[in-house]
Design brief:
The complex is a heterodimer of chains A (232) and B (218). Chain A has 232 residues and is of the alpha/beta class. Chain A has helices at residues 9-12, 34-43, 62-67, 83-90, 101-113, 176-180, and strands spanning 21-24, 48-51, 71-76, 95-98, 117-120, 134-137, 140-146, 150-161, 166-167, 183-194, 213-216. The relative contact order of chain A is 0.20. With 218 residues, chain B is α/β, with parallel strands linked by helices. Helices cover 17% and strands 24% of the residues of chain B. The chains are: A alpha/beta (232), B alpha/beta (218).
Chain lengths: 232, 218
């Protein structure tokens, strides 16, 4: 078995340099790689292009990397829960490329399937179509969308093993699964690193071939963005 | 005239047994409260849930279990979880039968604008462009006129588009209307206490009125 285990987030992030493109997993604050984000702040890497569905909130998630001005460009489907984000975008400090959510998820996944581009009806006839190739297939229009090329993907899983196999928990699977396949180097932080043989092969969401470095996160805050409940 | 819950109640009558349904944020979310007994549907949340249940009881919320509005939710028995790429795969493949979402403007040819107002902070389209481009059936829940009293049912959308020629049905505080494939809003029902004249005045796009227009049953 090929051993993918690294000691901690600092070691996992080796090789991430200024100006690189990274995928960062999660949806909202659900399933974000909290430990890696903290380590990236400590590392101080600048001018990053981040592919991530959202940009966190002011004091959590990718919002922390915005506060430290480490992000040059965000590629996301929905942003806006974040005052610092808004300020940097309106002042022109931050570039933002808005991509329909399904297109974003698929462009991550395609990188792991070796599919260079795919036709989608999402965005036809809108400003998203500007500058993109339009094809007509059996009477319907589609936009050609490219697979993402990211030097690193940073994801968070529930359980993983030394072989790099990953299992996600509940809706924290979200973008973590497609992104775990999509990085040239994929870093997975997990809540629990288990001994080989404990993860049932039938239940693995991402096979270890896609994962290059894995470590158990020190702690998880798992902040809730919108706490909605009903009375007992 | 209907309030938000009235619009949601009327839309709930469009939900048929056996449907997989995606509900957008706002009035569409309220539709779940009014689906009649005996109608079995599964709610899809595009971050990756089929069989989404109500909000959790206090103290039982789980940070790992949220819906597309980032709210804590629960799962019903028989629910499934999947990644966001597969989620939009089932949307693109039209496995999800019905999408209900809000709009700022709809045109008489079924174009929809609901994601961007020039000059204001742009938050992004989220999954709306994927949903409207692929759904077989789209019902829009919206206000007929804006706060200034101007119609939001237009010959042509003025705001940046989310999708083209996709809206099939609209439910507003005043009326239920179909969008015809050849263009035009066909008036189907009036809200209680609203006249055909009121609806004509509130509709800037081409309005088609044929015969008697019944009052809505809610």
């Amino acid at each position: 078995m090929i051993n993918k285990v690294v000691a901690n987030a600092e070691e996992a992030l080796k090789g991430i340099e200024d100006g690189m493109t990274i995928m960062v997993g999660g949806f909202g604050l659900c399933g974000i790689p909290e430990n890696s984000i903290q380590a990236l702040i400590k590392k101080g890497t600048k001018n990053l292009t981040c592919i991530s569905n959202n940009a966190g909130v002011d004091d959590f998630g990718l919002g922390l990397l915005l506060q430290t001005k480490q992000i040059k460009k965000m590629i996301s489907s929905y942003v806006g829960e974040n005052a610092e984000f808004e300020r940097q975008m309106l002042s022109g400090e931050l570039e933002v490329d808005l991509v329909p959510q399904g297109t974003l998820a698929t462009r991550c996944m395609m990188a792991g399937y070796g599919i260079p581009f795919f036709p989608t009806p999402a965005g036809v006839g809108t400003e998203v179509a500007i500058g993109k190739q339009l094809i007509n297939w059996k009477g319907r229009d589609y936009l050609m969308e490219e697979a993402f090329e990211a030097e690193f993907a940073i994801v968070k899983a529930w359980k993983g093993d030394a072989a790099g196999n990953l299992i996600f928990k509940s809706t924290a699977r979200n973008f973590n699964q497609p992104m775990s396949m999509g990085g040239k180097i994929t870093i997975a932080e997990v809540e629990e690193l288990v001994p080989l043989g404990q993860l049932p092969p039938d239940q693995i969401h991402t096979p270890g071939i896609y994962v290059h470095r894995i470590f158990q996160g020190e702690k998880y805050e798992k902040r809730i963005e919108q706490r909605t409940v009903r009375k007992k | 005239m209907l309030d938000k819950n009235g619009i949601a109640k009327r839309i709930a009558r469009e939900v048929k047994d056996g449907m997989y349904v995606n509900l957008g944020i706002g009035i569409p979310t309220l539709v779940a409260n009014y689906i009649p007994e005996g109608i079995n549907v599964e709610l899809q949340s595009e971050n990756g849930i089929l069989g989404m249940g109500p909000f959790p009881f206090e103290g039982e919320e789980d940070a790992d279990l949220i819906n597309a509005g980032k709210q804590t939710v629960t799962l019903l028995d028989g629910a499934s979880i999947f990644d966001s790429a597969m989620s939009f795969g089932m949307i693109r493949a039209q496995k999800v039968h019905l999408t209900i979402l809000g709009a700022m403007e709809v045109s008489e040819t079924g174009d929809i604008a609901n994601w961007k107002i020039p000059g204001k902070m742009v938050k992004g389209m989220g999954g709306a462009m994927d949903l409207v481009a692929s759904a077989k059936n789209i019902i829009v829940a919206m206000q007929h006129v804006n706060k200034a009293g101007e119609s939001k049912l237009l010959p042509k959308c003025e705001l940046p588009l989310t999708g083209i020629r996709c809206v099939k049905k609209i439910v507003t505080e005043l009326a239920v209307l179909d969008v015809l494939p050849e263009g035009g809003f066909r008036l189907l029902e009036r809200a209680p206490g609203v006249s055909v004249e009121d609806i004509k005045k509130a509709t800037a796009g081409k309005l088609i009125v044929e015969g008697e227009i019944p009052e809505m049953v809610i």
